[in-house]
Amino acid sequence: MANRDEWIQVSATRDEIVRSNVFVKLEDGDGWRSKPEIPTAKEILLLQKEAEGLPENHVKQPWKSKEDYLEAQYEILRREGTEGLRFAVNNYIYNSNHGLRQDDDEHKFVYTQVRVKSYVMTALGPLARVEFMPQRAIKWLKSGRLKPGSLLALTTKADKFKTICKVAVVAQRPYLFGLDQTPPLVDLMWGNPEDAVFDYDLELVMIEARHGYFESSRHSLVGLQLAAQTDHKKDETPSFIHQNPIMDFSPVVRQPLADFEKLKSLRDFNILSGALPDVEDISLLDPSQLSALHRMVSKELAIIQGPPGTGKTFTSVEAIKVMLASRRKRPGRNPPLIVAAQTNHALDQLLGHCLDANVKILRLGSRSDREDMRPYSLYETRRKCSRGGGGKRFRELEDDRHTNINRVQALVNSVFGDSLIDPRELHAHGIITEAQLESLYDEEMETSPELEKLGPFSLWLGDSRIPAQIIRDRQPLVSETLEADEDFDYERDVENIAYDEEDADRINGREVKLMHVWTGKEPGHFKSWNHRAQRLLRENDNLFDIPQDWRGAVYQHLQSKLVQATTPTLAGLLAKYVEICKQRRALKARQDIDMVFSQDIAVIGCTTTGLTKYRAFLAGLQPLTLLIEEAAETREGNITSALYPSLQQLVLVGDHAQMSPRCDIRWLGEHPYNLNVSLFERLVNLDMNHIMLNQQRRMRPELSHIVSPFYKNLQDHSSVQSPQARPDVPGMGGRNCWFFDHEWVEETNSDNSKLNDQEAEMITLFFVYLVANGVSSEKITILTYYRGQRSLLLRNLKGHPSLTGCYFNVFTVDSYQGEENDVVLLSLVRSPLPAYGRNIGFLDNQHRAVVAISRARQGFYIFGNVTNLLEAKIESSVLWGSIFHRFADQGMVNRELGLPLVCQNHGNEIWIKELEDWADNAGGCDERCLETRPCGHPCTLRCHAIAHENLPCSSPCFRIVPECGHSCHGLCGERCFHDCERFRQEKALAKQAQRQDTSSPKGKTIEDLLLQHGAHDFGHEEPVKRKSGTSAGSPARGLYSHLGEMPLRPLDDNWKNAEAVIQQKDRELDGELAKRNEKWFSQRHHVQDKWMPTGITTSGIRVRAGPIITQTLQLPNDLPAMTTTTALATGSGIPLRAGSGAGPIFAPTSSQFPNIAAVAQPELLIEFEQDNSAAPESGMANETTRELEDNGEEKWLIDFE
């Protein structure tokens, strides 16, 4: 009985925690605790002078009170999320007041012709589906605009923010059936349901800020308000450890222990004894790691600094294993350990190590790129637990939700239905009088089917009734130049705002459309007619007394008034719907909590943003321990807001000398607001107890020497001093680091990003040299501070003929935190003309500099203007002077001679100062090779590091050509040929024979393979005729073939690589192909599918479509619809898509087409050879097409799986 009572009490406590975190109670008044989750119009419309009153964020002294601390964190963080939009709206108002053009600029994006098209009633809440027009055509797949979670401000076209400002959040921005439409569509969530717009004809203007990202702070703001409602007890040692101080350190042992007593002492170690466990010779932990681990598992607050290569993640994983082993010793059902990281990549890495240790995990969030994480998502875990329909209460809420949707639909139908307005609705809302209503219901009026269908207004309008689409089509949708925005951070930018992974790809729900089907014709000779239409309505009790020419205008006025009259009711229904959705979310969180305990999940992981986004669920678990990786990159407010009342232990692991928190509003990151100072850094600077890991295992000693000024007592582990573990960079003569100085002038691109063309070319040629000397391209990383330089470097590398087929690691410094590689090349870019003064931009940021100089294991080479670095300003002189002198005192710089290379064959030293110095360098020196090739010819090249077997011979070839018996006219390293008629005839006959050969996969067409493996299943009695949409004799490349004959040949490469190529190129062609499809559905291309997506038209034509070609087979009309997704098309002859994008799906299963399914084997991957077919007139000869061309042959893959 006691156990049952205890269970009831625990359950009630969890219920209360979840509800308090979903239904946040705000205080009354105007203080920070009373502010709603979504900013109000008042905040967005603040003038600059009104917006300057922010509290200071003290980072060099303790706070006097918890209230002051939380208020400062809240107000500064909220301003960071809203300041960009506030400034953008004020800029729009200023331009409007001064008659200036409202164009996109450096502060904002302006969207016009904005209309609310419908509402999507999702489980997340009601989403307004909005159509809009940007000021230029956007490459949405490469654009950072309208990121989910972005804050928007809307006003009417007429008001221009004078009195109307509606705040909304982007809920999702799907491409298919969304941004790919004309006009584009995006789903918004209103900040206040009372702001909801239900009039499609109301034209709005929408403003998006270029700076600031509200979603990154949104959930933390709510968490800070909740933190103010709870108290934390301060205790050096957590109470759960006081109660059970015996901990198990045996998981750190890396070898079997024969000493049973020692093993027992590790399993029953008293953590309060003050001593460290004796594991020095039986674990991989160095002394500093062991001290850190001891503090992590025993103290209320543990701060662990891990310089580059010192094993931060390894130490965290060892601590987690000890915590979990000790957790099993405590009685009862213990809550899981919560782990978090700033980035999804770091989180997956940490959880991956937990999996390796057989730990049962759960991962929150849907942004993992690792397939091995997918089974541990919340959605997959629910599915495996077969939670069914969610129980009686869940079904009740779903019934309430659908009832609400039906009420919304019914009310909308009364306004926007297929018929004309019901006059009784107008009378009920006081829009027309009793007399006007009766005038429409004359008993002597003749009835007709049309009158009964469309209502009394049909007869009254007469010829003035027109389809509403006619008026909508009058407004041209025009965009100017095509724009591809700068690269944006996919780490946080593309996921929608759903709480549930079930909705991670797309939030779905019933769509309630708002558009009128019918409307009235406007008087053609008046531009402004609304006032007269109102007067005519007031003056005529008998509506038939209104002149026929004006009835259409009056009807439009009546439509508008009815929308206005019903808007408060609709807004109330939406508010009720939001409440139901919150109850549903709370119930799901509560059920998930029970699932975690029933499955005995030991570790739950999420990003630091997820700590507050999933707060209801996580706080309801009542966790005791929270471990945060990359804590020095996490904003203080994000951590403070995640300190749930139950927490007794906080472990912060990071390095404040590397990347600091990201602040989107620069002035808020600086003094006195200090938003870019993390809690980790602040506590370390306040001399809180912390431990620094001090043995680095990444860099060669000469490389760690460069980093050492930024870390006291950083030591080299013995492993990095071994020549076998860290060999010299080949071709550099033992110079494993170098600072190359130049004075090449920088440039600025259209995105206002910096680049340096000559520096990029020098790095490219050095990259070529390293590869020629045997360094794998995958083992080289190029870092730069600027996206413009990154793009330029990638373009140069991909375009260099010696690097065909190579893999390139080119990153910005900011995105490479936590990564490493054998060789790192750093491009500093900045080198302004002396007349403009010295300037290094944000190269003076020490955090970025430390990341940049600490990524290499074996070789590190910097390229930049030393004079500019040392003379720009005092801060840069101190920072880069220290780095430069670390190169100089090792003799690793020569500003006069440049970059030294050492030939591996002859030991000669070559100096490279200018681009011309590379000349025809092939990875060696200037001497001639003179060795004999395997073919017998002497090598005529300069000294090179590449083996002769991999270099084509350029000597004349005298072999006999088998096709004609003549001597070869080509070079030794080329395919033999002779320029004679007999040779050409033999080659033509051989090609024809290859195409006709159907005895093997080589040369087979798709139909050949289908027929061979069971084409009778498709109703074929004889081989199928191929339909061709090409013009005979038109010279074109095979890539442009449509419905034409395409010879196929086996593919030698791995089939997974083929699928990746298909998916990549398919995405690039989405925009072009979408224009050709009348109607299509989307499906992802899964590896487990037996077929690529195919289509079937209603006339029975089965279409197998690749990104470029379409093959067809005639099918019987009664072909069964055996699809895993809907497979419909609107008519025959429609060009349908396939691949990873969209298209009507026809997916044969093995049970229905067993013979066809047999085709689906990995070795049957095929690629198209060149064919002469007509090029379509669709403008597809674009950059994507040119990238596919290679020596006169297109390489395009079709996966037969």
From TrEMBL:
Name the UniProt key words of this record, in alphabetical order: ATP-binding, Helicase, Hydrolase, Nucleotide-binding
Gene Ontology, cellular component aspect: nuclear RNA-directed RNA polymerase complex
Could you tell me which residue ranges the DNA2/NAM7 helicase helicase domain spans?
285-661
Q: Which domain of life is it from?
A: Eukaryota
GO biological process terms, semicolon-separated? regulatory ncRNA-mediated heterochromatin formation
Where in this protein does the record put region Disordered?
A: 1172-1201
Cite the DNA2/NAM7 helicase-like C-terminal domain residue spans from the record.
675-866
Q: Where is the signal peptide?
A: none
Which segments show compositional bias classed as Basic and acidic residues? 1184-1201
Question: Does the keyword section mention Hydrolase?
Answer: yes
Domain ZNFX1, by residue range, is 107-210
- Please name the GO terms that the record assigns under molecular function: helicase activity; hydrolase activity
- Do the record's keywords include RNA-binding? no
Per its record, how is this protein called by name?
P-loop containing nucleoside triphosphate hydrolase protein
- What is the source species? Neurospora tetraspora
